[in-house]
Structure formats: C-alpha cells, structure tokens
Amino acid sequence: MTIPQRKAQLKKLIDSVKDPAVLEKVAKVLEKPVRQSTMVKRALKAEEDLKAGRFQTLEEFNRDMDEFINGLYAKKTKTKRRA
Questions:
Q1: Cβ atoms within 10 A of the Cβ of 26, count?
Q2: Of 20, 27, 19, 21, which Cα lies nearest the Cα of 10?
Q3: C-alpha span between 50 and 42 (Å, rounded)
Q4: What is the distance, to the nearest Å, from the Cα of residue 70 to the centroid of all Cα atoms in its chain?
Q5: Each residue of 20-57: pLDDT tens digit?
Q6: What's the CA gap between 42 and 3, in Å, rounded?
Q7: Over 70: is that where the pLDDT of 78 sits?
Q8: What is the three-state SS of the chain?
C-alpha cells in the first residue's frame, strides 16, 4: 500500500468516527512528536546494516572468536634471559 492510499484509508476511518473521545485520542497521537526509544533506533540501524550486508554469520563469528581466543593463549617463544 502506498502512502497516499494509506492516508486515504485513514481519512475514511476518521470520517466514520462519531465518538469525540476517540477523535481526541487520534488527535493526541497525531500531534505528539514522534520519539524513538534507544531500542527502536538500534533496531532500525541493525536493519540498515543487514540490508547493506554488514553482518557476520554465526559460523563466521565463531571462527573469528576461536582465532582470537587461540591467539591470546598461543605459546610464546621463550627468550633467553641476559645475565
């Protein structure tokens, strides 16, 4: 559904409402500035990343983490102490 179609649909719904309390609630919703919570912003950013291909599969992540952890515990070559 396009935006103009959705607007037309909503206008018809609003025109059919006879209860002033309902209309008041609709007005409050429409007049209120839209604020996005931190969680919503993160979710939207994640969707952008996904669409742009900026993600790792679970297998890739596990491989990278294994390499990282193994690198932390890799045996270091012993150096001779100088006297």
A1: 14
A2: 27
A3: 12
A4: 32
A5: 999 999 998 888 877 778 888 999 999 999 999 999 99
A6: 25
A7: no
A8: CCHHHHHHHHHHHHHHCCCHHHHHHHHHHHHCCCCCCHHHHHHHHHHHHHHCCCCCCHHHHHHHHHHHHHHHCCCCCCCCCCC
Report the amino acid identity of residue 40.
V
Only one residue has tokens 């919703």, namely: 29
**Residue at 65 is within a domain:** yes
Q: In the prediction, which pLDDT does 30 show?
A: 87
pLDDT of residue 82: 72
Domain count, the chain: 1
Asked whether residue 82 is assigned to any structural domain, the reply reads no
